[in-house]
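Working notes for the structural subgroup meeting. M.R. asked for a predicted model of this chain before we commit to crystallization trials. I am recording the input and output together here so anyone reviewing the notebook later can reproduce the run.

Input as submitted:
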Amino acid sequence: QVRLQESGPGLVKPSQTLSLTCTVSGSSITATYFYWHWIRQSPGKGLEWIGMISYSGDVYASPALKNRTTISLDTSTNQFTLQVNSVTPEDTAVYFCARDPTSGLDTWGRGTQVTVSS
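Returned structure, recorded in token form:
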């Protein structure tokens, strides 16, 4: 059974860096043709795609967030991570990680709430 679990601080101060980890079980993050996504949902808004990283470490990010976003793989722990720099209250959202075996997102984590506030 494939499971994804997001983790990280629930509260981040403005101008600081948001850091989240997605722990994957039941699937290898380096398995060929798998992609690993970050998505978020702000209060009262729809889902927003943040970016993804491939099994080989290639990163593709939303143009709106590209300049502030870092996504990476940690093959030693079978995790992938998200960092968003210089956060503002508009970055407050539920953050999800998801797996994409090339055919679309097939497995999602439950999501983790991140609030940006002083």
